[in-house]
């Protein structure tokens, strides 16, 4: 439940009004509801507070007893008219929104939309989308459509996706802002939607959907395999389209004077930008800003004056949500957690971690947040692990790691394998060991409680150790590989070394680490982010005087074919240093579509 209120609630100025209504004193109008319920009210309050009644001559009785009008929602809205406050929760938000629209209370409508938007989830997205259409709420409809775009991967896996109407799916595919892994995923989504059980008529529109694929971003091998599929072979228009596509891509000489059979402009899903958290110049002590970094311009301040969370772990999850885990509040270590929503520019508290941790490791695994190791409140080095499920707002234990460690690097792969790398242990010093697990299912079928907790040796497995034992390293994942860099040890001090890890598979059961190009700057306690086919290394809290505002990037192979051909990364390049930020406390890649249309003034 969330309470919304006016900037200056009427109930705060004149609390007697609501008491007079409740005591049926001086009331001059009765509102008839479903089920023969009646609300007594004052015409002057209704006319002054509810736009629908402005300028109307109200009689002694007002009927609001239609079948689609919720009695409890009317009561809540009338109470809001008297108090300036309204409580909204998931069971009441829709009927309140409908009544608020009928009464032209745009502020309450906006609150309901905000409430629903912050709780949108791909699994029930179509339900919210259809409600927004039925209730004619454009801002909610837009929020649903944006989530379909930005969370396309998860939406395609949800039960809502096969029920998406043709026109809506076509609109989604036409949009440049569609956030897919690649165009091959878009094709697979089209085939999945077309093959939905009991929908043979969908084949008629298959060629129209396929025409919206940006075929120039697909691989020849994929197109060849696609042409052999029976569902496409049996469809004359699809065969013709694929033939024209292949001719256009493979035989450029055939193009003069002709129009491409598909959109050649790439989608904006590749257009990610860096979101940085930390103090900017001019802010008071104890405040942070959220900024978008571009190598071509100064940082753009998206949100200013959020409460600082020094020494917290900052993790980016799905749908533009950033989590600040632990850290210090009023100079005391805490297990509390705050969520920053890039879409709404708001922070809110969520469930605290089960254990207080400092110098722990953390990363996002799909929509969930994993945290492990660190030091306890009694300075014990921990092996314990836990994860946060935002849907249920709960933390849940996982089996302890094979080794206790603090300041480990943590990364997850798309297949939900989770790797904990290096760190520090009081007995061994800086560590080279690596262990990994397969993250439990988030569908509720896998639960690790103290009663059924798997043994650590059955849950965690060893992987190939890193080449060097440093702490305070940064890590990111790109194209299914783990990239690890920087760090510190007592002998070599700060380092600029970078390693890349090929994860375990059948040919190499422990995986393999390989040294690649060194960074241009030695870094410790910094941030490494995969963003728009580059790896960015940002800031340096360990050596802030020299490197705290520096940024450099490592160019990656431009496409899958170059990667298959073994093309090496293109080397590290210095980028424009930070101008507005004093230092960086957190960094992540964010889709431009999530934040750009809600920009606030610099």
UniProtKB/TrEMBL annotation:
<feature type="domain" description="BTB">
    <location>
        <begin position="27"/>
        <end position="90"/>
    </location>
</feature>
<protein>
    <recommendedName>
        <fullName>BTB domain-containing protein</fullName>
    </recommendedName>
</protein>
<dbReference type="Pfam" id="PF00651">
    <property type="entry name" value="BTB"/>
</dbReference>
<dbReference type="InterPro" id="IPR000210">
    <property type="entry name" value="BTB/POZ_dom"/>
</dbReference>
<dbReference type="InterPro" id="IPR011333">
    <property type="entry name" value="SKP1/BTB/POZ_sf"/>
</dbReference>
<dbReference type="InterPro" id="IPR015915">
    <property type="entry name" value="Kelch-typ_b-propeller"/>
</dbReference>
<dbReference type="InterPro" id="IPR017096">
    <property type="entry name" value="BTB-kelch_protein"/>
</dbReference>
<dbReference type="InterPro" id="IPR011705">
    <property type="entry name" value="BACK"/>
</dbReference>
<keyword id="KW-0880">Kelch repeat</keyword>
<dbReference type="InterPro" id="IPR006652">
    <property type="entry name" value="Kelch_1"/>
</dbReference>
<dbReference type="Pfam" id="PF01344">
    <property type="entry name" value="Kelch_1"/>
</dbReference>
<dbReference type="Pfam" id="PF07707">
    <property type="entry name" value="BACK"/>
</dbReference>
<keyword id="KW-0677">Repeat</keyword>
